[in-house]
Design goal:
Blueprint (H helix, E strand, L loop, with lengths): L5 H5 L2 H14 L13 H17 L8 E7 L5 E6 L2 H19 L15 H13 L4 E6 L3 H4 L2 H9 L5 H12 L2 E3 L2 E3 L12 H18 L3 E5 L2 E6 L2 H18 L10 E3 L9 E3 L5 E3 L1 H14 L8 H19 L9 H18 L3 H10 L4 H4 L8 H4 L3 H6 L2 H6 L12
Parallel strand pairs: 1-4
Antiparallel strand pairs: 1-2, 3-7, 3-8, 4-5, 6-7, 9-10
Length: 416
Amino acid sequence: MLNEDVMERVLNRDNLQEAYKRVKANQGSAGVDGMKVEDFAAHARKHWPVVAEKLRSTTYQPGAIRGIAIPKPQGGERILGIPNVQDRVIQQAVSQVLSPIFEAEFSDHSYGYRPQRSAHDAVRAASRYVAEGKTWVVDIDISAFFDEVNHDILMAKIGRKVRDKRVLKLIGNYLRAPMERDGQSIKRSQGMPQGGPLSPLLANIYLDELDKELESRGLSFCRYADDVVIFVKSERSGQRILARLTEWIAKHLKLRVNPNKSGTGRPWHGKFLGFSINSDGSPRLAQASLEKLKDQVRKCWNNQNRLALEERIEEWQHYIRGWYAYFGACIKYPLSRAIEGWIRRHMRKYFWQRWHNKRGRMNALKRLKAKPYHQHQTSVSVGDWRMARSPMLHAVLNNVRLKRWGLWLPSDFVTI
């Protein structure tokens, strides 16, 4: 248990400065009040003494949350709740104080949003289970977890370790803060906004009981936020575990397991954090992740997207750097040569279309010092996609030139 000084730790100057530094680094959209992150420092210099006093006296009321609909890869929408910048700083300050207290008892099988742990660690742990012969996976999908968290259960879990009523009331106010969408203010009696700095810690606090239950049953599992996978040796065992855990989750956590997205299968057929796991335990890029990459390639190198070339290259570099940092960390060869060739073909198609017509293409080929017989091919009447595969474009827009222009692919990062 803690003493009655948690709020003072939250309001400690060093803690607040660190919280602001992290919020500033994450940037993010403005909340309902429209304030940008870079404008908060001037606002705090003027108003923070009043805000701090309200926090101490429990009279502080968080601002409404801005609801933003984000499309899901499988269809449908996920609602993100974006607090105002001031509330993001306060939430981050609270999280920094509470996190070490709860971290001490969190499960070793929990990897999401925890210090010194990552999605890669979860994938490596899953790979070890498969290599040990547990080649059936139980995938548990909790329906609308962030929308259906029970406030009473969550506050009871927090209250077992936090006795400062000022902090408990503040967290409760954040959970109940209204959400504004399409000009309407929506009251909230359950769930928590997925988008605030405090939400990841609250999610781990809420699901820690599930981790402890799985450990008590002696199961091999990995949990990353609300994504739970359990590794077993037989399909029958997996189906039995799924049925029992579905009942347990409904009874103890008041949450629903989605029967359409949960089930038992082989890890090399499914997906965990963007990866599939082969029968020998080695991770590989999941098919769904590959399709997502292809969609991004089509979007970025679509000539109908009237983005300036410099901005297009910068957008591509930002995306492919992040993509490689994530997938390249777990697998040696994240893409085959065939897929990389397909991506470069889209790039060549973009340039061919960008040159517009015979005259523009002739001038571009001259600038690129193309051979005379290549220049004559500008009059060839074939489709753009077919032309992107031609020896002429492969010669003038070769891999070395594309890389020099900044059109990188994952294999290029070995030498960049």
